[in-house]
Amino acid sequence: MRTQSLKIAAAIAALVASAAATAQNFKWTVGWVNANGSSYAETVKTVPARIEAATKGRLKIELYDTLVAGPEQPAAVRDGRLDASFAVSPWLSAEAPYVNYGHLPGLLTDVGQYQKMLDPLLRGETAKVWRDKYKAIQLATGVFEEQCIISKVPLKTVADFSGKKIRVHNTEAGALMSKIGAVPTPVPFGEIVPALQRGIVDVVMTSVGTANGFGFPSVAKQLSIWKIGTIVPWSFVVNEGAWAKLPADLKPVVEAELRKIENEHFANHAAFSKDAIDRLVKSGMTLYVAPPAEQAKMFSNENTSSVYENWYKLNERSGTDGRALVKKINELKAKS
Predict the structure, then answer these.
(1) Number of domains the chain contains
(2) Are 101 and 201 part of one and the same domain?
């Protein structure tokens, strides 16, 4: 009799504990970079309300763009100083170059094609890096809108870049620019507009959304599309400890809502980019889209081979096989 009573008491205690866990509320402190005007920023801003609604208030996300500087956020997630981050891939150029395959010149220049490669290959490859190097779970991914070149003078040929001081946003684009005779010049993200205005740089590579958000039309009138570094990904990653604390019934709800947000983000990419370009033109900028012949020159083997080789070496030092990944991407491209 006493044994039976103990079993009943234990079962009741387990039920109570389970109910308490189910009812428990959670809060994540989440870092992001306030890239004003970008599709990244517009997507990120929707996440707190979407997740709170989907979880019926059980998970709340608080966004901070100054608590931890953008480049330091992946390490902060790994160390538990942030619960999560909407991390931007160029931040990882030195420590985890593997995730920057989208910056390789000519490899992936179409966002639709990139999205189709996520689930057969690229989502898992990126998630592995987040797990192994940052102790983080990747729950969603996305890309910035169309990338562009902002300048005061037209850049209509590859030769026009020669001698120009250019601010790029990733290592691979910098290597390509060096190869064609331009001079990559580092400028902090928040200072790129005054740098262009004062002549510290002649050219700026950015996305068409941030070009609007940061007021580039007031300092330069040339807008060029060259398909350089087209795929600039971001990932929503959560510290594995913070993720483990969520109850089993809550995790699939969070995952499902984040995947909905991701799908909507990609579905809106083309329209967002077009609208941003249209607004730049209406603001007085002259649009130039590099023709296939000039893009072929830009992405010729003569200009890109050393960029790829350098990227392969960076991966070797970090313990990843970049050469094998590029081969897999090219095989998928051939099939599609």
Answers:
(1) 2
(2) no
